[in-house]
Amino acid sequence: MSGLFGIRLLLLLWGCGCLWLTSPTSAALVIFEDTEAPEETTGAATQLQKRSTNETMPQVEVHSVTVDCTVTSRYAHTVITSVALNRANSSKEIFFEVELPKSAFITNFSMEIEGKVYVGEVKEKEKAKKQYEKAVSSGQTAGLVKASGRKMEKFSVSVSIAAESNVTFILTYEELLQRKLGQYEIQIRVKPKSLVHQFRILANIYEPQGLSYVDAQATFLSNELLPLVEKTVTDKKAQISFSPTVEQQRKCPGCDGTLIDGDFIIKYDVDRQGSLGDIQIVNGYFVHFFAPPDLPRVPKNVVFVIDRSGSMSGRKMAQ
């Protein structure tokens, strides 16, 4: 039985050559299929959710979630791959949602269903806007890039798949890491909201200048999960992996709740013994990284502003 009928993927890119996530209204991605009875979709801060007429039946299963991050010379390339199974005897709607850093940009999104790969298509701004509005007005399922916080943007897609079929979501985004407070930071938000049979985070870092230190932590790490974070660091390379089993993900023995809910954060800095920094030349272009460690701190003036406007009434003003 076909996993998806007449599916069209439209990567709606407004006015530039890649999908930048700097504004909640600057881009959108539409993935839909024609249906006779449209349903109202609701977004939640989770990577994969399930919708079923019978909520007690575990008919949609998140089989695997893999986050593969490669960093070379402060430039991060991250691929998120997730496989969901529909074990029901009827078609179901499956949601894929992931939160990305605001400074990141999407370079590819695709879905694989029954061996066939569907890839997003880039559209010009005005055409993209009109086609997205048309899809929404006709009741077709759609995906959007929108703001979810100060540091993150939400990428959301839903798709309906046939009975006893599976779908693989593949999202690729890239980011130039910025040095803040003396270190570089890779933030990976993971919120599967359910137990995952195969869950893995793998990060490989290569810095030609050398690594001075590497640290990995997560907001959800308990004493039991902490030893599962494996870290290997050499002079210029580092590898961090985190791969808990289903039993290790459980909040309690026998329950279906998961401990994996929060941010997995990797922090590192490069060796800065050379005062001239690091210069890299590729294809006629160059980039110069430098952060002299021995410069005196610059004096600063700090101004505190107290807001007494109407929006601060009640508890906020009392605080």
UniProtKB/TrEMBL annotation:
Q: Which PROSITE patterns match?
A: VIT
Coiled-coil zones = none
InterPro entries given for it? Answer: ITIH, VIT, vWFA_dom_sf
Superkingdom, according to UniProt? Eukaryota
Q: Which Pfam families match?
A: VIT
Q: Which residues form the VIT domain?
A: 46-175
Q: Which key words tag this protein in UniProt?
A: Signal
What residue stretch is flagged as signal peptide?
1-27
Name assigned to this protein: Inter-alpha-trypsin inhibitor heavy chain H3
Provide the species name.
Xenoophorus captivus
Query: What gene name does this entry carry?
Result: ITIH3
